[in-house]
Amino acid sequence: MLGIMIGVLALITVLSVMNGFEKELRERILGMVAHVTVSGTDGKLADWQALDQQLAADQQVKGIAPYIQQQVMISANGEVRGVLMQGIQPARQSAVSRLESHMVDGSLTTLKDREYGIAIGQELASSIGAFIGDKVTVITPSARVTPAGVLPRMKRFTVTAIYKMNMRDYDSSTAFIHMSDAARLFKMKGQVSGLRVRLDDLFEAQSVASRLQTSLGDQVEVSDWGRDNKTFFSAIRMEKAMMFFILLLIVVVAAFNLVSSLVMVVNDKQADIAILRTLGISPKSIKTIFMVQGSIIGVSGAILGAVGGVLLASNLETIIPMLEDFFGRKIFPEDIFYISTVPSELHMEDVWMITIAALLLAVIATIYPANRAASVQPAESLRYE
Q: Can you spell out the DSSP letters for 232-264?
């Protein structure tokens, strides 16, 4: 019973923690990317204002923001880094992302037309030694012809904001400038790279993207956050599935212990079984007795484990800090891990799935001992009694 209980409790707790990590990562990713992105097939949208109005009329669309993006190099203090430069409209960016809420210094409102301000991630700022008010040089891949030869286009920007998303891909390799500055820098006057769209339900992104692709035609490319991060979230789901089967082995081991325990009971009670058989009880009834006994053990263990797992998973975010305070050390130090807490999100469908799996294993484990008890021959068992 304890073996089944511990197995069920461990399964529920670990899957809840993995759900919590998946939710935390999803929210951080969606803090920078939109639910749906509409972009030009060649990387440019010319008549984007009309498309903007068309998308705004959709009832499932809650926010829209245009953007321009291109890969560039940023240089400062002798250090050079490759980053993804994004031109945005600061007033509309909050409609599709939570970037403003992750600012550690400055604000998106400091990005103004023709002032050439730039917002960079904290990790990028540390790597190039840039602080608020410092100048950085942006080098674009497009070249210009001069009397001295072909030279890359360069522009000096002033660091006006620093953000921290706690996601390495963004904190170290993404920068933001005003969209008008980006249009001049990348020679995209009157054009944008695409439109970012936020929906009222992020889990409807795939169906909405498919519908928009059909209605807008092949002139644009519509993608959703799930497809853009398909590899990442597929890896998380695969890890969660493998963890479920690995931890289910704890319940399987407990089921084998249940088999061995019932077999020992059958061997110990052979004489009693034989007497019951001589009194007229049927082999089917003997079989039922041992299956009920094993099932009671399985049901008790599964229910206790489910209750304990739900309580532990629901209070894990309170228990872990208490343990960290008691032992005087962090499980996930902030200077090493981007997620310094242990998030937990309990899904009742996981609880039901684990509990039912444990019950089925417990019932299956009783079949062999019950059949063995039903096959006891009274004469052979009572010969030396």
A: HHHHHHHHHHHHHHHHHHHHHHHHHHHHHHHHH
Of the three residues 174, 203, 225, the one that is the final residue of a domain is: 225
Residue 379 banded pLDDT, cuts 50, 70, 90: low
Instruction: Please give the Cα distance from 43 to 117 (Å, whole number).
Output: 24
264 and 164 within one domain = no
Domain extent at residue 170? 34-225
Residue with tokens 């008008």: 180
53-72 pLDDT per residue, tens: 888 888 888 888 899 999 99
Q: pLDDT tens across 92-112, in order? A: 888 888 888 888 888 888 999
Measured distance CA(382)–CA(270) in Å, rounded: 9
Query: What is the spatial distance between Cα 120 and Cα 15, in angstroms, rounded to a whole number?
Result: 35
* Nearest residue to 225 via CA among 241, 201, 245, 242: 201
Q: Are residues 340 and 258 in the same domain?
A: yes
330-350: average pLDDT:
71
- Looking at the fold, whether 272 and 355 belong to one and the same domain comes out as yes
pLDDT tens readout for residues 140-153: 887 666 665 566 77
Report the SS3 class of residue 310. Answer: helix
Residue 239, CB-side half-sphere exposure with 13 Å CA sphere:
13
Q: How far is residue 230's CA from residue 33's CA, in Å, rounded to a whole number? A: 14
